[in-house]
């Protein structure tokens, strides 16, 4: 008997292939949107991408978002209550999620941890990144690492201006709200009052030393991509709203410190 002719096995293989295609299609859609979105130069290079995913895929993301209990607590508010949560690629493969969520997020993280994702992000900001990376060195491509993390914040306290860690190359913030009711909850971009101020990354700065340039809208299915420079100061303005929530799928493209200058 030909096992491949067995309906249940055949259907299972077809379903698995269709699932793999849907995640690959979502990755290609996001890359296309990034590649064809105008780069905004001020106060530092960045892109704001509309319709980052196909709408049907974004609806699947919304349905698969885990409860707070599935995340690791990484921050507390002034009253000692958990208000910041993260869920890593390793954790989504554990027992924290139900079977359907675990399958979805495992496939999603695998789909975006793909050479094309990092390659196109670098291509988008090649001139900016070439100033601090040896992009012509094959070792650079071999050492690039992509890390996806689900991040949830409650109460939306301030995150003061900072530059990403020294090992950072590009950071992408996939914004995952259910609606556009809290547009002011998006990533904020800052310019230092001292135009000579630069930072290699990894530390927070005094908010009073910066002017707020803009807060990018926190809208469904939007994406903000920022290449790391010594002047790419980002953060979040305080909203201090106990019921407000910010969900983000964060993708960090990094290099070992030896390859970054």
Polypeptide structure, described:
The protein has seven helices and eleven strands. It has 261 residues and is an alpha+beta fold. The model is unreliable at 1-6 and 9-14 (pLDDT under 50). Strand 2 and strand 3 (82-88) form a beta hairpin. The chain starts with 6 loop residues before the first helix and ends in a 7-residue tail after the last strand. The chain has helices at residues 7-35, 55-64, 89-92, 99-112, 115-124, 126-129, 138-143; strands at 47-49, 72-76, 82-88, 145-154, 159-162, 168-175, 188-192, 210-215, 222-227, 233-236, 245-254.
Mean pLDDT: 87
Q: Which term fits the overall shape? A: globular
Strand content: 25-35%
Parts with pLDDT < 50 across at least 5 consecutive residues: 1-6, 9-14
Note the total helix count. Answer: 7
Q: Could you tell me the radius of gyration in angstroms?
A: 20 Å
Strand order of the largest sheet: 1-9-6-11-4-3-2
Helix content: 25-40%
List keywords for this structure.
261 residues, alpha+beta, seven-stranded antiparallel beta sheet, 7 helices, 26% strand, globular, disordered N terminus
């Amino acid at each position: 008997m030909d096992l491949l002719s067995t309906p249940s096995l055949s259907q299972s293989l077809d379903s698995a292939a269709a699932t793999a295609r849907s995640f690959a299609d979502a990755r290609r859609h996001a890359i296309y949107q990034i590649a064809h979105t105008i780069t905004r130069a001020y106060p530092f290079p960045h892109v704001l991408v509309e319709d980052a995913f196909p709408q049907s895929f974004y609806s699947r993301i919304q349905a698969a978002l885990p409860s707070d209990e599935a995340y690791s607590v990484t921050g507390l508010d002034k009253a000692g209550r958990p208000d910041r949560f993260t869920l890593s690629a390793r954790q989504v493969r554990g027992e924290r999620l139900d079977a359907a969520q675990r399958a979805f997020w495992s496939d999603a993280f695998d789909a975006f941890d793909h050479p094309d994702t990092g390659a196109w992000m670098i291509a988008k900001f090649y001139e900016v990144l070439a100033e601090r990376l040896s992009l012509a060195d094959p070792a650079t491509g071999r050492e690039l690492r992509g890390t996806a993390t689900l991040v949830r914040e409650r109460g939306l306290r301030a995150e003061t201006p900072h530059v990403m860690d020294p090992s950072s190359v590009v950071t992408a913030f996939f914004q995952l709200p259910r609606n556009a009711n809290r547009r002011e909850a998006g990533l904020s971009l800052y310019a230092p009052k001292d135009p000579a101020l630069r930072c290699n990354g990894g530390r927070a700065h005094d908010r009073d030393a910066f002017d707020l340039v803009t807060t990018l809208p926190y809208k469904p299915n939007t994406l903000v991509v920022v290449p790391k420079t010594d002047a790419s100061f980002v953060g979040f303005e305080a909203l201090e709203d106990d019921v407000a929530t910010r969900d983000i799928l964060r993708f960090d493209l990094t290099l070992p410190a030896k390859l970054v200058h």
